[in-house]
Amino acid sequence: MKYWTAHLRPDDSSLLIREGFSWGALLFGPIWLLAHRAWVPGLIALAAGVLIAVLAPAGLMLTLLSLYAVALGLLGNDFRRFAAERRGFVLAHVLAARNEDAALARLLTARPELAREFGPDGRQ
Q: For every residue of 6-56, which 3-state class applies, written as one string?
């Protein structure tokens, strides 16, 4: 079972963010954050990566960059939640489901007024 947090805005737009580790954040770091509209965390992560690459001693750089990547993987979805809050989203539900489609179905069952936001295929 996987967990998602459902975030809503007053204009009835919604956002599902998965809980847990993010492979995308581990592999692509700040680019992944920026692609998910987490501008502030993405720019801070980019600056931190550049600082590690420039200031770290050669023997320690690979270790620090590896730890940096793992930290982004662990915290990437939390950074997305932070960015969603800054954009006006409010945490409304925590959903447990097998996949994102099932989580969306649970959200729409709990909040049927959100159904008008989604097309016939269930996507925004």
A: EEECCCCCEEEEECCCCHHHHHHCHHHHHHCCCHHHHHHHHHHHHHHHHHC
